[in-house]
Specification:
Elements: E1 7-18, E2 21-33, E3 38-42, H1 49-57, E4 64-73, E5 82-84, E6 94-97, H2 111-121, H3 127-140, H4 146-149, H5 159-172, E7 177-181, H6 189-206, E8 209-213, H7 217-223, E9 226-231, E10 234-240, H8 241-246, H9 251-258, E11 308-309, E12 315-316
Parallel strand pairs: 2-11, 3-8, 3-9, 6-7, 7-8
Antiparallel strand pairs: 1-2, 1-4, 4-5, 9-10, 10-12
Bound molecules: adenosine-5'-triphosphate and magnesium ion.
Membrane topology: Peripheral membrane protein
Keywords: ATP-binding, Cell membrane, Membrane, Nucleotide-binding, Transport
InterPro entries: AAA+_ATPase, ABC_Ni/Peptide_Import, ABC_transporter-like_ATP-bd, ABC_transporter-like_CS, Oligopep_ABC_C, P-loop_NTPase
Length: 331
């Protein structure tokens, strides 16, 4: 087993082009993911979770581009991660699973054929062997009667079954790291639990690295080892699941976690933290949570950067890090 991370994101900056200006929406995002490790990413809508995954994949939407930082990916077991240039699709090393399985499946193709073609694109596989591997992949993600379902079109499958197929498709690229953007949010709780189990099995059996974006703290508890909290385009806290979810240090992380119903209560999206995040046009150098924080003082108006999530340990970007850790009231 290697000590190299599989994926390293170092000072990632992403900007949206608007006429002559570029609006920075991801600002110095850094983290690393190792073999069999799952990094959970949480944060309010618009904080940059999806763009982080898309930038890592090299699949940013038109008009949005990587303007800084490095993405490094280990393509062979034991190999040090090497740089993926901006604009280059990470390809075989990374695969992505979206909330909406329609985003990855082709409505005009039988699901098995699509998976088999994806297997063949890796090279060195005959047509019949690719078909056999596609059936095996469908079976491995719990699709019943995989030889029959091979011939189904996406619209003939239920939402849960389609999401399994989307995962099989992602695995067909033989990725080293799987990027999951709310893959269970559209599913009911039972299906969600099944998909989480299946992702966990794939991770352990294949030694996959994983990034899992979710609004649901209960889901993050089940699947992640390390949790990063994002706010306004930066990582503002990172640590193990129990560090961050049980002992959050940043007032935003604390408010976000306190806003979630207890683990015995209904599981759902975050209730809102009062106020709203700043518009990217207003991102300055001060703490971006300033206006919503009940603990602000002049120190928060100085330069406050996001944290480098590649370093080990429980850390937060709050200038009061540690001193507010105990007895902090949610704002
Ligand atoms: N295609 C796009 N065009 C213009 N702006 C975009 C686009 N996609 C994202 N943005 C902007 O970039 C910022 C980050 O968006 P992103 O989609 O990464 O957020 P998110 O954390 O994934 O939110 P959600 O929880 O709602 O999925 C937001 O300000 C958003 O409005
Ligand atoms: Mg998103």
């Amino acid at each position: 087993m290697t000590s190299h991370p599989l994926l390293e994101v170092d000072g990632l900056r992403v900007a949206i082009r608007r006429q002559d200006t570029a609006l920075t929406v991801l600002d110095g995002v850094s983290f690393a993911v190792g073999a069999s490790q799952c990094l959970g990413i949480v944060g309010e809508s618009g904080c940059g979770k999806s763009l982080t995954l898309r930038a890592a994949m090299g699949l940013l939407p038109p008009g949005i581009e990587r303007t800084g930082g490095k993405i490094r990916l280990s393509l062979q077991p034991g190999a040090a991660p090497s740089e993926v240039q901006a604009g280059q699709v990470a390809g075989r090393g990374l695969a992505m699973v979206f909330q909406d399985s329609h985003a990855s499946l082709d409505p005009t193709m039988r699901v098995g054929t699509f998976i088999a073609e994806t297997v063949r694109r890796r090279g060195g596989t005959s047509r019949s062997d690719a078909r056999r591997q596609a059936v095996e992949l469908l079976a491995s993600v719990g699709v019943p009667d995989p030889k029959v379902r091979f011939n189904a079109y996406p619209h003939e499958l239920s939402g849960g079954m389609r999401q399994r197929v989307a995962i099989a498709l992602a695995l067909a690229t033989d990725p080293r790291v799987l990027l999951c953007d709310e893959p269970t949010t559209a599913l009911d709780v039972t299906l969600q639990a099944q998909i989480l189990r299946l992702l966990n099995t794939a991770r352990t059996e294949r030694g996959l690295g994983m990034i899992f974006v979710s609004h649901d703290i209960a889901v993050i508890r089940q699947i992640a080892d390390v949790v990063a909290v994002m706010y306004a385009g930066q990582i503002i806290e990172i640590g193990t699941v129990s560090d961050v979810l049980d002992r959050p240090r940043h007032p935003y992380a604390r408010a976000l976690i306190d806003a979630v119903p207890s683990i015995d209560g209904p599981v759902g999206p975050f209730r809102s933290v009062p106020g709203s995040p700043p518009d990217p046009i207003d991102y300055g150098s001060a703490c971006r949570f300033l206006d919503r924080c009940g603990h602000r003082d002049t120190a928060c108006e100085g330069v406050v950067n996001g944290i480098d999530g590649r370093e080990a340990g429980h850390r937060s970007a709050c200038v009061h890090n540690g001193t507010l850790a105990h007895g902090l009231e949610a704002t």
